[in-house]
């Protein structure tokens, strides 16, 4: 694969590049350029060619490809290694298998199809083959208190990735839904285990991309939505996956204090900008007990802050809380 050519096309994604411009940039002749373009097409890139305009990258094939995702990712930690499965039980399960082996921090697992995809609260996550982004990211050697932070940053990253790549304005519902006009577009699930005295996390993210209404089972047809339904067009799932990993990497660095001038408060503020819940009445169940009150804030480290009807402010963590109504 000609990395220089791919980068040039990616930097000008959607715009035409003349043969002269490409050949000049690569310092190669037209026949070499044509050969390299053909190689990129063979591994899944959609490169249009029109004699009067030249060439342009219009997307990638419908299938995920680990090399294509890894290439040019530019992340520090997330997606150091990418695995793609045609079909697996759950990408979270795969990530946990690698976690048991150790040494796979930052691994990102994608699948075209899951036979036993799961969501929060023992829900299933069903997505027809090739229609969504089904992704799990493994984080090793973490501290105990990362669960809430990872839940928030993963939801925000998914919301931002969809917004950046598909130009759709997204909202976030605590703790884990990315929604558009009240319908669920993506979900996040964070699992943790203690392995060798440190905490290991798997962040599972599902984004509905190419589904039609009929692809959502039963009541989900009314409550879930895909990017294709919203835009009426195709989605470059590869570009969306890359952007998702990029945003996860960025926000994880922020949370770890590795981005100069950015603090955890930045995550809090960005998350809150996308959330319509502050001020709303909400009913939640935690440890078998039901609570009703008004949302006052979110704590990045602890969870949702709700002023209960008796005036007390109670913190609800995402791992043990179910939202009943909002
Ligand atoms: C939710 O909204 O309840 C969370 C859904 C998380 C679904 C993703 S899809 C990829 C990963 N593998 C799974 O089995 N679940 C998560």
What does this 3D model show about the protein?
The chain has 326 residues and is α+β, with helices and mostly antiparallel strands. The chain has three domains: 3-59, Arc Repressor Mutant, subunit A; 66-272, Bira Bifunctional Protein, Domain 2 (BirA Bifunctional Protein, domain 2); 281-325, SH3 type barrels, CATH 2.30.30. Helices cover 32% and strands 31% of the residues. It contains ten helices and 14 strands. The chain has helices spanning 3-11, 19-26, 30-42, 66-70, 91-101, 147-166, 220-223, 227-231, 237-255, 264-273; strands at 45-50, 54-60, 82-88, 108-114, 132-142, 171-173, 177-180, 183-195, 198-208, 281-286, 289-299, 303-308, 313-316, 321-325. A seven-stranded mixed beta sheet has the order 3-4-5-9-8-7-6, with helices on both faces. Strand 1 (45-50) and strand 2 (54-60) form a beta hairpin. Helix 6 (147-166) runs antiparallel to helix 9. It is globular and about 75 Å long. The N and C termini lie far apart (51 Å). The model has no long low-confidence stretch (mean pLDDT 92). Biotin is lined by residues 90-92, 114, 117-120, 123, 125, 134-136, 176, 187-189, 204-206.
Care to give the gist of this entry?
By secondary structure, the chain is of the alpha+beta class. The chain contains ten helices and 14 strands. The chain is globular, with a radius of gyration of 21 Å.
Query: Under the CATH scheme, which class of the largest domain?
Result: Alpha Beta
The small molecules bound here are: biotin
Helical amount among residues, as a percent range? 25-40%
CATH topology of the largest domain: BirA Bifunctional Protein, domain 2
Count of spatially separate domains: 3
How much strand?
25-35%
């Amino acid at each position: 694969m000609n990395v220089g050519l791919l980068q040039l096309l990616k930097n000008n994604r959607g715009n035409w590049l003349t043969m002269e411009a490409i050949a000049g940039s690569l310092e190669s002749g037209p026949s070499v350029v044509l050969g390299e373009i053909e190689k990129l097409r063979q591994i899944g890139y959609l490169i249009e060619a029109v004699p009067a305009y030249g060439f342009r990258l219009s997307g990638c094939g419908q299938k995920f490809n680990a090399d294509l995702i890894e290439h040019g990712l530019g992340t520090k930690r997330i997606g150091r290694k990418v695995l793609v499965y045609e079909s697996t039980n759950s990408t979270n399960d795969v990530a946990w298998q690698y976690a048991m082996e150790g040494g796979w921090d930052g691994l990102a697992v994608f699948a075209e199809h899951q036979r036993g995809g799961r969501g929060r609260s023992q829900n299933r996550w069903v997505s027809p083959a090739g229609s969504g982004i089904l992704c799990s990211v493994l984080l090793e050697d973490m501290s105990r208190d990362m669960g809430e932070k990872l839940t928030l940053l993963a939801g925000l990253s998914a919301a931002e990735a969809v917004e950046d790549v598909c130009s759709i304005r997204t909202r976030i519902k605590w703790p884990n839904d990315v929604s558009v006009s009240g319908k669920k577009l993506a979900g996040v699930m964070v699992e943790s285990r203690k392995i060798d005295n440190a905490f290991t996390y798997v962040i599972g993210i599902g984004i509905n991309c190419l589904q039609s209404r009929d692809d959502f089972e039963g009541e989900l047809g009314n409550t879930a939505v895909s990017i294709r339904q919203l835009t009426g067009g195709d989605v470059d799932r590869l570009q969306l996956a890359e952007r998702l990993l990029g945003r996860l990497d960025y926000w994880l660095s922020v949370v770890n204090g590795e981005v100069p001038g950015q603090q955890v408060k930045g995550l809090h503020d960005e998350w809150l900008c996308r959330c319509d819940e502050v001020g709303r009445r909400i009913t939640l169940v935690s440890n078998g007990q039901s609570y009703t009150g008004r949302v006052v804030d979110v704590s990045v480290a602890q969870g949702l802050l709700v002023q209960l009807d008796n005036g007390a402010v109670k913190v609800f963590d995402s791992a043990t809380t179910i939202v009943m109504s909002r």
